[in-house]
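Slide 14.
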Amino acid sequence: MCPDFIIKADPELSHKAARDIELAFKRVVETGSKDWFRAKTESSIYQMTSGYYRTVGNVECADRGTL
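Slide 15: predicted structure.
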């Protein structure tokens, strides 16, 4: 997962890439754990995913509380 996959030139493909990253996070990483280190890691991934959505111009997805 790299910001290089988020390309403004093709908005549809870029949005799909951001959505795929979000779904992979929810499927593999997100645990809802109360462990501080785990929660901090998950929070930083949420921020990263929000940044991808913001880069492709989908502010609605970037700003919602849970992705």
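Speaker note: The chain has one domain: 7-63.
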